[in-house]
Every structure is written in C-alpha cells, then in structure tokens.
Amino acid sequence: MTSRRWFLQRVPVGGAALLVARPCAAQAYPHLGESEPRALEVGYVEDAAKADRQKFPKYTPGQVCFNCDLYRGKPTEPWAPCTLFPRRVVAGKGWCDAFRRRSV
Hints:
- About 30% of the residues lie in helices and about 10% in strands.
- By secondary structure, it is of the alpha+beta class.
- The protein has a single domain, classed as High-Potential Iron-Sulfur Protein, Chain A (Irregular), CATH 4.10.490.10.
- The protein has a two-stranded antiparallel ribbon.
C-alpha cells in the first residue's frame, strides 16, 4: 500500500521533471510551412522581407516574429512556438498579418 509520505516525496520530483522537459517538447514541433492553409490566411513568411506588401499593407520593415507579442521564444531563438499556430514553430525572422509589437 502506498503511504502518504511516499506520495508527498515523489510528486514534487515528478512535477519538476515535467517542467524541465517542457521546453524540449516545444522544439520537437515541426516548422510552420508557408503553404499551410492557416499560414496563407495571415500571409506568414519565414523571411519578413518577402512579405506581400500589396496584399498586407500593414507590414513595415522591422516587424519580425521575434518582436511580436505572440512569439513564445527568446528574441535570440531562430525558431519558436507562436500562440497563433499551435503545435508548430515559426521563424524568428518571419512575419504574418497578426503581428503585434511586443511590449517592453
């Protein structure tokens, strides 16, 4: 029979292991393809300089994913998760029409 003491000793260790493993799992997601339907809807490109300025006039130079509030990585990471595209990672130098400047 499992005792309460045994349980309380092991639960914090298990929780810590999950927290450590979480960043590794994010890197396992595939890159978002520019031709995926959701990416096409918002004009996602891996290189912001290639943004379609005719179709998306909101784009201005300097807007890149790593400066966006939706980007879930550090600005130094070349690829990171984005809240707009679950289970995918986007290019830090990319852009899409959902861009929102990251608050400082």
